[in-house]
Amino acid sequence: YHLKRLNKAPLASIESPDGDIIDCVPISSQPAFDHPLLKNHTIQTRPAYHPEGLYDESKVASQKQRTQTITQMWHQNGLCQENTIPIRRTKKEDVFRASSIRRYGKKTHLSTPNPSSVDPAMLNENGHQHAIAYVEGDKYYGAKATINVWQPSIQQGNEFSLSQLWILGGSFGQDLNSIEAGWQVSPDLYGDNNTRLFTYWTSDAYQATGCYNLLCSGFIQTNNQIAMGASIFPISNYGGSQYDINILVWKDPKEGNWWLQFGNDYVLGYWPSFLFSYLADSASMIEWGGEVVNTEPDGSHTSTQMGSGHFPEEGFGKSSYFKNIQVVDSSNNLKAPRGIGSFTEQSNCYDVQNGNNGDWGTYFYYGGPGKNPNCP
């Protein structure tokens, strides 16, 4: 029954080289429309406005650090037609791996880093560790970043490693609103160790609302080319070719919905603003960076990697980066974040280093190996 609810009847299905099945589902039959408040929703096919300054970025990135474009693996075997959207099919074993059917596709409570209240006693309570850059103290209407893509190794099946941006509203109590997008490796969620594009949302601090990708009603997808949760390809190599993805989330000033864009060409869809309380107006904090779960297997720190698995000191080609970090202000302009802070619970395990230069704008390197002699 649960699979029936998740998997909508497709017009066509495409088998991906990585074992996924991508269903091409009519745009109006997607999971979002199971939501009671979306019963009579008219799909907004495109945003009324993009943020100003989106396309006048300098295209003269130095040749040495040119990064190639990224597609999704399933494209090798076909595409979905117009007026359908690609949805990664949920298999029986995906649901069985979840701690309960009700929790399938959800994050655990308390997984957003709160830089202002790190109580060391809390560190291992929920086992989430972060290395992030953040801004707060203003009203934010979106965020953008170019994120280096890697395939970190995961020690235990129930751990994950992700690199994402967070758009946050409200307090870190029971009513936190969050919109998240980036890449993740999560054996629990996907049954493999591939690096995958993902989104997440919640309006009550990960308790009852929200989910990854399209695993519940909420996000309305409008794009027929990119599948949420599908494998990203290719991946960066240590000391070799580097690949990155652009993620932009912004609030359309006309309709008020939060839109997601992947790369320069793919507007993927939107979160209707009524899903949220605080974010119906604006965000009060933006975060960018990495998160891992540390279950402390064998009583010591996990060796699950964050980013490339290498510390920021190693620099380009070796450590993972976020670059051209921007926020969207109340006039719908993209601009560099002011007063950026950084935060990590245990810098000996995973670290973060901010920087600024012409080509990369505001950037940082982040990540690490987890368990090592200084992080027992």
TrEMBL record:
PROSITE patterns: NEPROSIN_PEP_CD
TM helices/strands, residue ranges: none
Domain Neprosin PEP catalytic residues, every copy: 122-376
Pfam families hit by this protein: Neprosin, Neprosin_AP
InterPro entries: Glutamic_endopeptidase, Neprosin, Neprosin_propep
Protein name: Neprosin PEP catalytic domain-containing protein
